[in-house]
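Inverse folding, one chain.
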């Protein structure tokens, strides 16, 4: 299974975007293990012992501390990795995306110690739990372009500005139609789209 997933990672450009350093390979392993195994970092280390990680990814023995180091590396390199994935997407499709889709979700915590964890609108129905808010930006075909984590008390419209900045500044997109639901593109969201001259598609609220 690991071999097949690694082949898919190569085909979709993920391996090229990450690079070939040890930390990049550990990050790739984390992605593949998450798809196949979906356990903790410690359980991923145990899972690796039975799945030819050295033969497939060229990784020698590692432990959970190495995987946490890889997570820190991936967080620090996220913008660079996303930029490479975006360039690969444009190369494959022949043009920048003209239509982008955006939505947010949230994920709650059982513990209290998290830098971005705050009490907010909990989509999981878990009252009294801190959470983070996660925004995903994709092309019209659903291929992810960028993901960003916000504090758990961040409202949906307040996350739009960061996405506009990525599209206009980092990805150099000149013209785009931004699609979001009626809870997303309100007055604040529209105001953030105007400076970049981006258009939008949304829905009317019930009172409107």
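Residues assigned per position:
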């Amino acid at each position: 299974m690991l071999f097949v997933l690694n082949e898919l990672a190569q085909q979709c450009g993920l391996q090229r975007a990450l690079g070939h350093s040890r930390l990049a390979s550990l990050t790739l392993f984390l992605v593949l293990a998450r798809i196949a195994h979906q356990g903790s970092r410690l359980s991923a280390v145990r899972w690796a012992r039975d799945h030819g990680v050295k033969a497939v990814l060229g990784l020698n023995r590692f432990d959970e501390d190495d995987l946490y180091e890889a997570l820190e590396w991936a967080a620090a390199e996220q913008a660079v990795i996303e930029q490479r994935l975006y360039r690969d997407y444009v190369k494959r499709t022949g043009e920048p995306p003209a239509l982008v889709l955006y939505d947010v979700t949230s994920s709650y915590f059982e513990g209290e110690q998290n830098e971005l964890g705050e009490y907010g609108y909990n989509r999981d129905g878990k009252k009294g739990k801190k959470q983070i808010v996660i925004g995903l930006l994709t092309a019209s075909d659903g291929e992810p372009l960028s993901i960003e984590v916000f504090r758990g008390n961040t409202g949906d419209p307040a996350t739009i500005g960061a996405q506009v900045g990525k599209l206009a500044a980092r990805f150099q997109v000149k013209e785009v139609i931004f699609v979001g639901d009626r809870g997303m593109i309100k007055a604040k969201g529209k105001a953030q789209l105007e400076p970049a001259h981006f258009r939008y598609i949304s829905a009317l609220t019930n009172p409107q």
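The chain has a mean pLDDT of 89. The first strand starts at residue 99 and ends at 108.
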